[in-house]
Amino acid sequence: MPVIHARPFDFAFERGTIGLVVIDMQRDFVEPGGFGASLGNDVRLLQAIIPTTRRLIEGFRTAGLPVIHTRECHRPDLTDLPPAKRDRGNPALRIGDPGPMGRILIAGQPGADIIPELAPLPGELVIDKPGKGAFYGTDFGPHLQRLGLRQLVFAGVTTEVCVQTTMLEANDRGYDGLLATDATESYFPHFKAATIEMIVAQAGIVGWAASTNTILEGLHV
Ligand code: TIU
Q: What is the pLDDT of residue 182?
């Protein structure tokens, strides 16, 4: 079985069952004027991983392996937005409010688009998700089963929120998850570092972690 050298030990995979999941690389999180900025975050921190994430995506494409993208967003009528999520904190703009990139975190608005540098190719799966995890309220799970995937490499933002939640959801459903450490980022660098350590601690209690170069070497691309 081929392996990717990872922490805490080698990540074994099959070519027919491994795929890349890129979480929420949307304008709303990465560009000024979106959801991330409305929460008071410095979105420039997330922009640093764009070239690495692009290399990871292109490596999977070159290897002929599936790339799946997710977008955190809500229906225009907000019926999938619990008050507990909308009313959290005291942001300048709330989900659904009009902002410089259209309504904040709403499907179909410019802010909910994946950033142009990492745009999905025609035919790549894009999962719109109302929650932090990609399994909740979506058909992500059935799509993974249809594609026959068992090992998932994760990239995207933010490490400790949507990426970690999706890795935990995937782990409970029997998928092996590997986090690409330089293709994920947080508004809080110490949260990113802690998340990586939490994932690989206890003999990989949640999963594995490796750099993009190491992942691409393991895939032979
Ligand atoms: N705020 C924050 O760190 N993250 C989110 O709200 N969503 C995702 O992580 N995608």
A: 99
Over 117-153, what HEC string results? Answer: HHCCCCCCEEEEECCCCCCCCCCHHHHHHHHCCCEEE
Phi and psi dihedrals of 90, rounded to 5?
-135, 60
**Is the CB of 24 within 6 Å of ligand 1?**
yes
CA of 88 to the centre of ligand 1 (A): 13
Tens of pLDDT, residues 178-220:
999 999 999 999 999 999 999 999 999 999 999 999 999 999 9
What residues are annotated to the active site? 24, 129, 162
Give the span between the Cα atoms of 136 and 86, in whole angstroms: 17
Ligand 1 center–CA 162 separation, angstroms? 6
pLDDT at 89 over 90: no
Residue-wise pLDDT tens digits, 192-201: 999 999 999 9
Strand 11-12 to 3-4 pairing: antiparallel
Separation CA 204–CA 176 (nearest Å): 10
Residue 208: both structure tokens together: 């594995």
